[in-house]
Amino acid sequence: MPNARTIFAAIILNVAALTAWAGFAQAAVTSVATANVNLRAGPSTAYPVIVTVPAGAGVVTYGCTDGYTWCDVSYSTHRGWVAASYLQTVYNGRTVVLTPAVAPVVGVTVVTYNRAYWDRYYAAYPWYGRWTAYPAGAATVRSGTVVGPAGATATGSAGCGPYGCGRAGTATGVNGGTATGGAACGRYGCGRAGTVTGPAGNTASGAARCGPHGCRGVAVGPDGTVMGGARLR
């Protein structure tokens, strides 16, 4: 009776034959799912599940993320991402897991996941409009500068990543005064800091933070006087 490796190898060869007609527009390697595994809309368990690939099913692998932890694959009519640890391919005549050492040798290269991929494959799904709710979209940074009619300017940027959100900004008045501030919120609370500089060079700074147990704040005046306090909530 054939063993599991023989069965996997046979499946891989069969799938390869079916996909050979695809041409050379995009390099592809045939792999097999080693267990029931979710095909997701992005390289993270935070992304929606498109379909479950059954154990033993053949998939076409187009590339993997840096580090080869997630791979871009197609299964049936679906396109998405599968954890690389659930994929096997043929290497040196035997079936092996698609590891960082094996992947480049068998032709699986590093690919990038971005908004263009999302737009191309998922426009018909109900969650398509929630790009910024998932890791890659949430990490998008916005920035810009606004110039007022009298010549004053305001510059700012904001972004969100896996651990929270942050923003920074600077405003410059027509007389040369500036105001600079930043704020961030993470899983343990929020913090902010700011500095105001007058046209003559005087400055005032302040900082505050709030967490699960309350808030604290401090201000520094132009003469160096420090005023601080705590307010519990």
TrEMBL record:
It comes from the Bacteria. Keywords: Signal. Residues 1-27 form the signal peptide. InterPro entries: SH3-like_bac-type. Residues 26-91 form the SH3b domain. This is SH3b domain-containing protein. It comes from Roseibium aquae. The lineage of its organism: Bacteria, Pseudomonadati, Pseudomonadota, Alphaproteobacteria, Hyphomicrobiales.
